């Protein structure tokens, strides 16, 4: 009888077990919150770095008429050829921006001359500025939403559909091997981005203990 009584659980064993399970559950929930918050912060940080390390081209047509849209494409082709030659040796976005600042008068003359040869009297305005862009997927890569430095070329009243691409890295106008210097930025832009933390392994370990 004595041995049988020793095998029986005490009256407080049930509540104590439930309390431990609740404590582990709360700890796991808190840890998961920390992991998800850290992942979100990390993701936003990488997105911000991509915005800061990217130089875009933004060409706005005078209107959406077929004529004005064709003029936009003619200006695009003429400017891209000149921009590519000017920025092909830039090793950073800052170098590319500085090169464009120097080349800006020539770029505007090129765009204006292209319009004149096409028989258009539209005026051209070229400038570098910070512009908010929505997230956009190109062929082969993706850019997050954010504020980017862009070479903005306005044709006439600049009320038509625009054309935009990436000057640095030369993702649209240069070699297909163009990449960011940072591994995480490349993973985000070209796919395969994963946030991995030591905390995630800890969370898995805690969950394993609970389920065991």
Structure description:
The protein is of the alpha+beta class and 212 residues long. The protein has helices at 2-7, 13-52, 66-87, 93-117, 183-190, 198-211, and strands spanning 55-60, 124-133, 136-137, 142-143, 146-155, 162-168. Strands 2-5-1-6 form a four-stranded mixed sheet, with helices on one face. It has a two-stranded antiparallel sheet with strand order 3-4. Helix 2 (13-52) crosses helix 5 (183-190), helix 2 (13-52) packs antiparallel against helix 6 and helix 3 (66-87) packs across helix 4 (93-117). The protein starts with a helix and ends with a helix. The mean pLDDT is 81.
In brief:
By secondary structure, the chain is α+β, with helices and mostly antiparallel strands. The chain contains 6 helices and 6 strands, in the order ααβααβββββαα. β3 (136-137) and β4 form a beta hairpin.
- Please work out how many helical segments DSSP would assign: 6
Helix content, binned percent? 40-55%
Major sheet characteristics: 4 strands, mixed
The stretches of 5 or more residues where confidence is low (pLDDT under 50) are none
What's the average pLDDT? 81
Derived from helix and strand composition plus strand pairing, the structural class reads alpha+beta
Strand content: 15-25%
């Amino acid at each position: 009888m004595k041995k049988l009584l020793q095998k029986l659980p005490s009256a407080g064993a049930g509540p104590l077990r439930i309390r431990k399970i609740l404590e582990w559950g709360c700890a796991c929930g808190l840890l998961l919150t920390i992991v998800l918050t850290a992942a979100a912060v990390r993701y936003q940080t990488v997105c911000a770095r991509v915005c800061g390390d990217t130089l875009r081209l933004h060409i706005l047509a005078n209107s959406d008429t077929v004529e004005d849209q064709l003029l936009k494409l003619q200006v695009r082709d003429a400017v891209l050829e000149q921009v590519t030659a000017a920025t092909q040796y830039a090793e950073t976005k800052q170098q590319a921006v500085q090169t464009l600042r120097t080349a800006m008068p020539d770029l505007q003359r090129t765009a204006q001359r292209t319009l004149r040869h096409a028989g258009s009297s539209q005026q051209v305005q070229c400038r570098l500025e910070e512009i908010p862009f929505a997230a956009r997927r190109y062929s082969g890569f993706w850019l997050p939403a954010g504020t980017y430095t862009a070479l903005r070329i306005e044709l006439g009243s600049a009320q038509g559909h625009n054309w935009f691409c990436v000057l640095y890295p030369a993702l649209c106008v240069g070699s297909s091997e163009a990449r960011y210097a940072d591994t995480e930025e490349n993973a985000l832009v070209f796919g395969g981005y994963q946030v991995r933390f030591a905390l995630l392994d800890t969370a898995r370990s805690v969950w394993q203990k609970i389920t065991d």
